[in-house]
Amino acid sequence: MSDTISPDKIVSLPQPAVGPKYKRVADTIQSAIKAGDLRAGDKLPPVRELAWSLGITPGTVARAYTLLTNAGHAVAEVGRGTFVAERTTRTAQVPREYVSVPIQDGKLSLFSPQLPDLGQVALIQDAFARIGTSAPDRLLHYPTRDAYRPLREAAVHWLRSAPLGRIDETDVVLVHGAQNGLSVILQAILHGPRPTVLVEDMAYPGFRRTADLLRADVAGLPSDEKGLLPDALAKIARATNAQVLCTSPDVHNPTLNCTPSDRRREIAEVCRAQDIQIIEDNCYRRTDITAPSYRILAPERTWHLSSISKVLTPALRIGFAIAPRGRGPDLRQIAEHGFFGIAQPLAEATERILTLPETDDIVAAIRERMAEYVRVAVNALGTYKLTWHEDVPFLWLPLPQGWRAAAFCRAAEARGIQIRSADEFALRDGRAPHAVRIAVNAQVPLQDFENAMLELRELLGHPPEQISV
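Below the sequence we write its predicted structure tokens.
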């Protein structure tokens, strides 16, 4: 074996200018290995020494080394250190840029957004590894409310850029994703034998599915390009004696409409006059929103939902339900009665991930990568009436004359592409436009995604001679 490589040698190597710090370190070392500057058997500098020389944390270097060993470029030996791997080892373990390629039976799924791995997987692996070796007594007991406080505080930090007004950790209840949070909030709000929940005529289907589970009626509301119509909201609320409005004002799913400030104020006043509670779903977090949230406009009646699923990972199933001021205990009681709270190891891992400085860089990198895919879709389909935003990992496509949504989805699937019809977002007795939602799948190479968009463009230009009914 060779002597230990000096940290100064690593520092002197050319480093990438962008990307999370730990990945830049790993890429630097990997490039040096490929160039022959580092040879098989060379011992990499100790984690702390290299961290000090680079001016970064030891944890960042440790993640870089983990990335190298997972890819087969390095070998970690307990008690001895980390060494450059033999070439046979490196070629046997081909590094993967994508966590998975969600293509089943030859079909590319564009049903739901798929995030790329730009470092969050290593953060998750490291977080759970640390939990497994520290404080084992916490793995034997029911967690207490105080045990969840660090994650609640991390959630407040995570939401710091959203225009939500003042949030205290006591307002936050930890849930298993936003869908679970929606159920918990509705249980805290709804009363009476047959309550009514209001949603837009075209809306995220999870709203009505949760209402169905709780035996609530669902009433649809008409909308325009600015969002739901205040006059119609007032009229339908009076007619149904509705108790709650479910809405997504920043990114309407599926149309991507954003409700402007003046319309939000009108809606908030109607809800206040009719004594309607508001559930504000903000899981698709746009970075350019300046309009006040309903939590600011009507803080006494707004319940806010957010999660890490759409911007970091959906695998952990972590969401944040934020109650109106003073209603946190009510919401927490519902959660505790329903599932006793999320698992303590999961809470600790998530708290660590959300408070690491690298996480913000990774989220920014994920957003940029997803935006690349959105731009590719726009370049391919932009001659049609397409609604899109670089911050949002799906697109809304009203179909040209000659196409029905169901027929277009069948034709796309016949070409190996799965997309969602507008019918999936309509109420059971409602009417859906002839449109489709196309989600970004960044777990496949960009060229494959572009090829799929070109296939859809070719389909759009050749509607069937006979329209299916």
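The first helix runs from residue 7 to 12.
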